[in-house]
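Hey,
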Amino acid sequence: MDTQDFIALAMLLPLIGTVMIWMSGPRPNQREVVTVVTAILTFLCVLQVLPPVLAGENPSLIIANILPGLQFAFVVEPLGMMFALIASFLWIVTSFYAIGYMRGHNEPNQTRFYMCFAIAISSAIAVAFSGNMLTLFIAYEVLTLSTYPLVTHNQDEEAKRAGRTYLGILLTSSIGLLLVAILWTWYAAGTLDFTKGGILKGKIDDGLVIVMLFLYMYGIGKAALMPIHRWLPAAMVAPTPVSALLHAVAVVKAGVFTVLKVIIYIFGADFLTETGASVWLMYVAGATVLLASLVALTKDNLKARLAYSTVSQLSYVVLAGALATSFSLVGGAMHIVMHAFGKITLFFCAGAIMVASHKTEISQMRGLGWRMPFTFAAFLLGALSVIGLPPLGGAWSKWYIALGAADAEQLIFIAVLMISSLLNVAYLIPVFARGFFGPRDEERAQIADTHHHDHDHKSADHAAYGSRIVEAPLFCVVPLWVTALGCVALFLYADRLYAMLEPIVK
């Protein structure tokens, strides 16, 4: 088999798996084995495409010629390779986690969940491997439609309302803005191919570049720039594995990935710098980084807090793209990876807490860390990575984005990054701290009901409480530690990731 075959298989295997999941629906054990095996095989196929990409090649697969100069085609370059590796690897981890969560939480419609998840992964890999904006747009829309049943999984009124918000914002932005930008690009440049250095220089008036950039940036609704971010927090009504898919594996990552593809291969970083067309985007992204963090501080629901954290973190990538320097673009690409591992760890932990203790509000989690030490320890690692502290992976991506800001002489955005990191500390660390400082709320009530309020008695109660470890099922705990340790590995091997991504700006 050659590289083209593996490109095709990486996208087809999840679809074949979808059919097999449906056929094995009445047999849960078989269904889940099919899911895991399909995920592993998909990842192995993606890995087979990696060596030629590392060797400097851009393997391609042309499906059909639509118009002269316009093909339905796939071309694998380093940025797309990185996204495909993330999506396929985290599918494996999330599949194991989903087994523990869906069974532990007695979720309905599990077969439909695994089927839609597989279709979403197939479309995410298609987004990653897209050779032009037309191919990417089609895969992008399939991703939107395949995740809608996942968002509305619970089938209650809240889920249906969230689904309407999700579908309404994402389809309106993509059809009303992104498609217009794509058609305009085709009219102006005569091609939609992803070309290093961009395709628009000399093909569009400098004064109109800002307008086209606006259409692209707000047309890519999955990047969740304010004020079209509301779909993301709304989607938190879905089960936690869906949240992991939305925030780390595929959906929002497809958004910021597309942002970088457009900036690097459609506009060209040099063209944006020359025209100054992306300055407004820097400030919008910077504002989103800070405002979303401030909103996160106000949320007591853990998943809602993490959702607004994601809105903030996504704008790091948008900011990196708007700065349009070599350092910032590579840093932005690295941040996609770093955030994926950090945020999926946090969502896995949130789900594990829900399964084991049925707690969703941070205010309810006082002392819970004594019962779930492994989950809360993993949460701390994920939180520190999102904050950007060594030795966790998030430190490197923020560092390179800051270098990019300095290189672009936009020092104000270094301050934005620093303030944002402090806000990250303010809304993430208290979750961990609350878990280990003081007895849980139920225990305090029990103590209040007795007449033994002395300090020694409290300590004894706390010690007894702490001795009863009740973690989520192993299928939940092991995956969250895999991703938590991944945050550490990304810090240690960041040089290899940088070397892989560096060709996108050379």
